[in-house]
Amino acid sequence: MAFSWNLASDFQQMWAFPFMQHAFEAGTMVAVIAGVMGYFVVLRRSTFVAHAFSEIGFAGASGAVYLAQVLSIAWLSSTDAAAYGMLVGSSLGGTTIAVLSRRSSHRDVYVGIVLAFALGIGLLFLSLYTGYATEAISLLFGEILGIASTDVLRTLVFTIIILGGVGLIYRPLLFSSLDEAVAEAKGLPTLLIGVVFLLLVAVAVSVAVQVTGVLLIFSLMVTPAATAQHLASKPSRVIAISAALALMVTWVGLFVSFYEPYPASFFITAIVFVIYIIVRVFHRRIRTPGEHRKDWKDRVLVSTKDYSS
């Protein structure tokens, strides 16, 4: 198949295939999750954490696939085992990292320690597995065009959980992200906020890997948010722009991949990277992330009430 001059006709032709409908449905939800969570990931300087979660989750997926084979669980397919293993592995890793490092600014060392241990465990499970670990390995690069209706439903459930969780802790999370020390001095439970945030990121990463894969998670979780920070300063606007960018590149990447013999994850990562470079180089109102943090730190500190009262 090839593009024509009638894009509406091309879209109708593509939309006639159920697997493309599922891909767009899941891709839309994943893009919104990545755009929203990505803002706080970038603001809290936790991009390495997001990347580590994807690899820690890969170890969980490998372990789940192996255990499903050893225990001969008939009702659990290897695909579902990999997905749930990814979620459990990421969540356990996130909790461990949050407990070991109370402050996000001192988190890199502990992330590296947990990541190295998880990768070793994942390698062990892959060596023990006697079949073809295609389900676990496919998480490395994403399989959005192979998503089934059950995967879409599962993604919807996780989307509601993640967005609902962010909505519940939005203000204290924003406050602690801008200045964790001041937030703690005002009585905010920064450790609890950090644990909840990392758990939400872990779930978001587990959902997003089906689109971009473990190795390309930065494309949706970090790049749109980093781009949006140069286009606005108000948090709600940055989040909206980040989600909109993630949506746009996901839709365009899926549409182009249907007509071209290349994976959707390649187009998604390439498009969002080009957009970031254009905005970073040519936008006249470029604001560095540090400037963004300083402006909003002052405003939030003034407007936020004392949580200790």
Helix and strand layout, with pairings?
Blueprint: H1 7-15, H2 18-43, H3 47-70, H4 78-100, H5 108-128, H6 134-138, H7 149-178, H8 180-185, H9 190-212, H10 218-221, H11 223-228, H12 235-259, H13 264-282, H14 289-303
Structural overview:
The structure is a single chain. With 309 residues, the protein is mainly α. Helix content is 76%, strand content 0%. It has helices at 7-15, 18-43, 47-70, 78-100, 108-128, 134-138, 149-178, 180-185, 190-212, 218-221, 223-228, 235-259, 264-282, 289-303. Helix 3 packs across helix 4 (78-100). The longest helix is centred in the middle third of the chain and has 30 residues, at 149-178. It is globular, with a radius of gyration of 20 Å. It starts with 6 loop residues before the first helix and ends in a 6-residue tail after the last helix. The model is unreliable at 302-309 (pLDDT under 50).
Globally, the shape reads: globular
Distance between the termini: 64 Å
- Overall pLDDT, averaged? 78
Beta-strand percent range: under 5%
Spans of at least 5 consecutive residues whose pLDDT stays below 50 are: 302-309
Number of helices: 14
Structural class: mainly alpha
Question: What is the β-strand count?
Answer: 0
SSE pattern, N- to C-terminal: HHHHHHHHHHHHHH
Percent helix, as a range, is over 70%
Radius of gyration: 20 Å
Q: What summary fits the major beta sheet?
A: none
